[in-house]
UniProtKB/TrEMBL annotation:
Residues 212-232 have a biased composition (Low complexity). It holds the Pfam family Clat_adaptor_s. It comes from Diploscapter pachys. Belongs to the adaptor complexes medium subunit family. Delta-COP subfamily. Oligomeric complex that consists of at least the alpha, beta, beta', gamma, delta, epsilon and zeta subunits. This is Coatomer subunit delta. One of its GO terms (biological process) is Golgi localization. Residues 177-196, 207-232 are annotated as: Disordered.
Length: 522
């Protein structure tokens, strides 16, 4: 299929917007094709009543769809697959209500660039991309969590600076009154007169810079907001704690900032507790699994994989040749395991011992090294730790949506579970039943359902809400995030020994976690 261009026409035959997808066609040729379309359907009285139809010329095919007061038109080559053309046309037709409140000409022209950007996400160089409506909206919005957090932190710092300035101005006025009561005249050499002059002017940075160094609030306000250290959250203050609590109440996941290695920063997620909570010994082993799952809204697993890694970190060179005895559960789990090339593969297969081939290639000190990894493909939806049943129902009053979660394995304890449900544009939900808490995220156009923990005590729960408009596709894909200390593939450390096996009681610490990489219902 080669799609030449996509366009939106009014019922009067006026081309409102058009997007060309091929490069080997001149502008004059494209304008000629657009001008020919109203003439081709001008005598077709039944064209406006048809759901999908097409007309052909000697060189191209026009596939169009009437949508209230407009036509959505695709110009393709004659040898393109008409079934694929119709499927692409449906996606183009569904994109328009996402950006326009109505199908009027003024509304289309007011959002012309948004529609063109969305068209570019659907077709590239004349060929359809494998995207759905939710992905198109995500790509065009380019939403940035980091930018929102930065702007909110900057706003909080500005408020703190203004509050400190007002407090200092009050203090200057009080000092001036005390001076006057003692009989001192505020003259040119009086420090109180200078202080009063400064406080009366709208120069917060000057006023704050005169504060004593013993007041941390004033010291932080004297720094220009948005500077190089604006995002440093290491030194907690009262205002900063209040700001972070406000972020958490708005549905943002904020983890404590800890001093970790570069490897820890790259693998950490906002929902995962800090690794500093685990007491690290001289030998530290971290096991992490990431689960990726895509479940059909009608039931059934589309694809699901679990990727696991075991990393070793030794604090000093005296432990850089240790060996780890693992509880190898490969036979029970069916996972595909791989060991690092520098380790003895035969020893691992025979005894489950991760040992170096040669002492001349030891583990580097104070650095995380991957020693074992695996990949597990899940075959059925029941193998997932958490399943969702999303049930939207359309009615004359809008849509009623019921969502039920079920913990499949009662031995799991899922922490900080967040379920993001997309909503129709410019629609606020009315929640009638909810286990846990919920938050309407207006900038993201989402309903955030949060449960602090899901375990055997609350292995199922429901969320029920309604919206005044929209259809079933507006509520997908539903994205889920959580973490757990239990692994899908139960590979654990039995003990750590020296390379020659003379000692099997090397002191060590372990850390395990299961996190979501992409967990959605589509």
């Amino acid at each position: 299929m080669v799609l030449i261009a996509a366009s939106i026409f009014s019922k009067s035959g006026k081309a409102l917007i058009a997007r060309q997808f091929v490069t080997d066609m001149t502008r004059a040729r494209l304008e000629g094709l657009l001008d020919a379309y109203p003439k081709l359907i001008g005598n077709d009285k039944s064209a406006a009543q048809r759901q999908h139809t097409f007309v052909e010329t000697d060189s191209v095919r026009y596939v169009y769809h009437p949508l209230d007061n407009i036509y959505v038109v695709l110009i393709t080559t004659k040898n393109s697959n008409i079934l694929e053309d119709l499927e692409t046309l449906r996606l183009f037709s569904r994109v328009i209500p996402e950006y326009c409140r109505s199908n009027e000409e003024k509304e289309i022209l007011a959002h012309d660039f948004e529609l063109i950007f969305a068209f570019d996400e659907i077709v590239t160089l004349g060929y359809r991309e494998s995207v759905n409506l939710a992905q198109v909206r995500t790509f065009t919005e380019m939403d940035s969590h980091e930018e929102r957090v930065f702007l909110q932190i900057k706003e909080a710092q500005e408020k703190a600076a203004k509050a400190a300035m007002a407090e200092k101005a009050k203090e200057f006025k009080r000092m001036q009154k005390e001076a006057l009561s003692r009989g001192l005249k505020p003259g040119a050499g009086s420090s109180f007169s200078s202080a009063s002059a400064i406080s009366s002017q709208s120069t917060p940075l000057t006023a704050v810079s005169d504060l004593p160094a013993s007041k941390p609030a004033a010291a932080s306000a004297s720094r220009p907001s948005g500077g190089g250290k604006a995002l440093k959250l290491g030194a907690k203050t009262k205002d900063e704690d209040a700001f972070l609590n406000q972020l958490r109440q708005q549905g943002q996941a904020i983890a404590p900032v800890e001093k970790t290695s570069n490897a820890d920063r790259s693998s950490a997620a906002p929902l995962i507790p800090s690794a500093a909570a685990v007491k690290r010994e001289a030998v530290h082993v971290r096991t992490e699994e990431k689960i990726t799952a895509s479940v059909s809204r009608d039931g059934g697993l589309q694809n699901a994989e679990v990727f696991g890694t075991v990393t070793l970190c030794v604090a000093s060179p005296e432990f850089n040749t240790v060996a780890m005895k693992m509880n190898n559960a490969r036979a029970q789990s069916g996972a595909q395991l791989q060991v690092h090339p520098n380790l003895d593969k035969k020893e691992w297969q025979a005894t489950g011992l991760l040992r170096l081939k040669s002492a001349n290639k030891p583990f580097p000190a104070s650095s995380d090294v991957g020693v074992l990894k695996w990949r597990l493909i899940l075959q059925a939806e029941d193998e997932l730790p958490l399943t969702l049943n999303v049930w939207p129902e359309e009615s004359a009053d809008g849509c009623q949506v019921n969502i039920e979660y079920t913990l499949q394995d009662k031995s799991f304890s899922l922490e900080n579970v967040q379920i993001h449900v997309p909503l129709p544009p410019a629609t606020a939900p009315v929640v009638s039943e909810c286990e846990g808490s919920y938050e309407y995220l207006k900038p993201r156009n989402q309903l955030l359902w949060t449960l602090p923990s899901i375990d055997s005590s609350n292995d199922s729960g429901t969320l029920e809400f309604s919206v005044p408009n929209g259809h079933k596709d507006h509520f997908f894909p539903v994205n889920v995030t959580f973490y757990s200390e239990k692994l899908m593939v139960p590979i654990t450390v039995e003990h750590i020994e020296t390379m020659d096996g003379s000692s099997t009681d090397v002191v060590h610490s372990t850390e395990t976690r299961l996190v979501t990489d992409k967990y959605e219902i589509v």
